[in-house]
TrEMBL record, chains A, B:
Protein name: Helix-turn-helix domain-containing protein
Source species: Desulfobacter latus
Gene3D superfamilies documented for this protein: lambda repressor-like DNA-binding domains (1.10.260.40)
SUPFAM superfamilies: lambda repressor-like DNA-binding domains (SSF47413)
Residue ranges of every copy of the HTH cro/C1-type domain listed in the record: 24-56
Length: 112, 112
DNA sequence: ATATTATGATCTATATATAAACCAAAGGGA
DNA sequence: TCCCTTTGGTTTATATATAGATCATAATAT
């Protein structure tokens, strides 16, 4: 039972989502799509698209990414995008990753 | 009244969210944080963090970005990140943007 | 091996995001 | 100017994401 769900967000997170929304809107305008048209293509309501473009933090990430993808915004390009490189590295590394995390007990080397 | 909300997502969107989640998990492990610790810092439940790391598309973008920010993943770097550059451009351009979009009426030049 | 801890999964109750239908106002074309 | 479209707000009903608790399993340290 969620007792209220009043989250706090870092300024960075807020800025990031705001910028992403603004970018979506710009891309939509550049492609001459109305809000309704883009919403239809993404399979969401116009109201949700409005909130996405406004940078509302509580929209589902799937809807946001879908809209971004449709208007041509690629978070993870095939090219030299820094994040993409890191993620590619991650993907390859995933199989080798430890499943759980342990606190590091500082090993004290006494027998010196 | 949402009649069911069964969305479809492009493969790209699914992959992007999956990769982001995997990257978050990797970053968390590299920082030796337990799921509970990271969840606490982000102000979310451990269950939600699990879904985020799994790449669940229906998590709120604010929670995802917050977690990513905490473990040091910057979607929009201050440096030469391509998306950042575009977004900076967008920000400056925002004030000049038209508020609404009009369909282009192909002007037919009859009197030729 | 044993104990301890992290993770994965399930279940319940509730807060809330969403779709849909409105309306008003702004914007752009003719 | 007038008309038509787009956008920005509501409001309402409902589907659902979330917090929190619990349990089983996996993983790690000693």
């Amino acid at each position: 039972m969620p007792k209220s769900i009043k989250r706090t967000y870092s300024q960075y997170s807020k800025d990031a989502v705001t910028l992403l929304g603004a970018f979506i809107r710009e891309a939509r305008n550049e492609r001459n799509l109305t809000a309704q048209e883009l919403a239809d293509r993404a399979g969401i309501s116009r109201g949700l698209l409005q909130r996405i473009e406004k940078g509302n933090l509580k929209c589902e990430i799937g809807a946001v990414f879908e809209v971004a993808t449709i208007v041509g915004i690629k978070l993870f390009e095939a090219d030299g995008n820094a994040l993409t490189k890191q993620l590619r590295h991650t993907k390859e590394k995933l199989a080798l990753m430890p499943k759980s995390v342990r606190k590091k007990y500082k090993r004290v080397n006494d027998d010196f």
